[in-house]
Amino acid sequence: MNRNFDQFVTKATSLIKKFGSADFYQWAFSLLVEQITCINAIMLYLYDDKKNLLQVEHAFGFERNVRGIHSFNTSEGICGKVFSSGKGELILDQYQLKSFAQNIEELVDIVHFDDGNISPVPSSLIAVPIMLENTPVGVLVIMDFSSQHLLTLRHLNYAENVTKIIALHRHFENINMENYDLHEELSLIKNVLERDGDMLLYAGVVSSAFSSIFLKGQEFDEMLKQAYSYTSFPMVLYNIFLEKMSCTDDTYDIELPENTIDMIQPHGLLKKEWRCVTQRGKCLYLLPVQYGGTIRGILAVCSHHSQLSIKERVVLETLSFYLSFVWLKKAAVNERNKSLKSELLTGILSGKKDDTLLTKAKILGLTKNGKFFVILLAVPDVDNHLDYCEKQEGAELLHTLEDIMKARTRGIIIVPEYNDICIIASCNAENCSNKRYANIVANVIEAITKARPDITVSGSRVYETIYNVRKCYWEANQCLTIIHKYFIHRKSFNYLDMGALRLLLTQRREDIEAYMEDILRPIIEYDKNKGTDLIMTLFYYSRFNKSVSYVSKKLNIHTNTLYQRVKKIEELLGYSLDDPMDWFDIQAASIMYGLIYTDLITKL
Fold first, then answer.
1. Which residues are CB-neighbours of 439 under 8 A, at least 6 positions away?
2. Could you tell me which residue ranges the GAF domain spans (predicted)?
3. pLDDT digits (tens, 9 = 90+) for 341-355
4. Domains (ranges, CATH) in the chain?
């Protein structure tokens, strides 16, 4: 059985070479029929996230025609159960299991055979979710209508392996990736498999080992361990930011040269050949891991030899191919998630309580309940943040933001927009337990501005449930608008910390300027003519609520000097600082002036 299964895995991996074929699904179904001879019908349902439905995309009848197109809600029947749970189901023997017909009732309605003598109800059934990165994208259903043969757990295992290949193909379809983008990567594995003589057998064994790891979803770590078992070479896998993604246990001798990126990708052009650098008497081979003509990572391999044997090159070339394929799979997931993020944000801002929003949020790692807030960022001199985030500098910024947010929050969604970058974050109750939840938002803003002082950052208050993210977005947007519109020296602000200013500064700019001029113009002109600094004195006196001792200390003057300045201010303005209404106008005007037109706020 193990030998048969190994052969099956190898054949399943060969489906990768059929990705560009219009008959891909027929090849996949034929492979299943070859291994599971009792199959009468196969139905492939793919998830339409816009309609929140599972729809039949491909149908296959063994020796009979299957006709009929149908769709399911993701909560209906056996297909909905499998899709929601992410676990395959094997249902046996309609004659002994009374609930069987109820479980597959919807399937019976859509599966029709030209041969009218066959039972209308399957005798056994397999339903397997099509999963990628723990995200369901469809369901594969296999049916046996005979009373002589029943599907088994071994058949379920076969189906699960084929669905992994189908899932990858589905993602390639979703991101509209043309076959020529994969041409070099696919031709590489083909060349490895078609080597002459004994090397053909060796390459086949190596490829089969890596493909088994790939199908099991173990990916980077296990692939490097497998390659190490063949070569005994220490190796490290880096991403494009030269961050370590995976490594073997003995990599202390590996240090990337400072000009690694230039060596692999000089002048922005990808070099397909390997680079070899001598380090401490050893050779460090640098192999670009790429797909679609774009570098995604670097495989660094340490060897004592200046030339690699044919077998060693076979292993490393095959490893490179499968690593690129893992990255391609992750890129497909990222592309799909990017679309989901945009749809989720648009849906939330619309204010409609659409049930599909919860499904999309769950796929992206957010739940309905919890505490949520929004951060908005604007990069200076960038008009279109969507285009900016597609470039290297923007990708590095998103990477930095992701690290900052993951260290401080429970779940995040980062959505680049035209005018800004939006971060929707959820947090634990202990992260936002005081000052009306302001601490977590303030901590995030502080971390972002510390990492990138040039960026303008705003934050909302924290609200319960995902449906209040719309309110969070409005607050963060108001905050960002105020910073852009008024503040010269301030680059970040929390909506809660803005206090009454969020009411005052949402007015028209000309109205605010007129209000400040009506009140403060006499002392501004006096300072200009006399060279005094009464406006700063008034700002501190207002900001710290007439605390003579504290303001005197901040301004480094005697208390009597402060009293004299306050008396002069009252005289120039014609206001009494002891009158509540007069004091309100003076306090509001002076604090707004200090925030908007000066850097007084930075001296507090």
1. 431, 432, 433
2. 31-166
3. 888 888 888 877 666
4. 2-174 (3.30.450.40), 181-331 (3.30.450.30), 365-495 (3.30.70.270), 509-603 (1.10.10.2840)
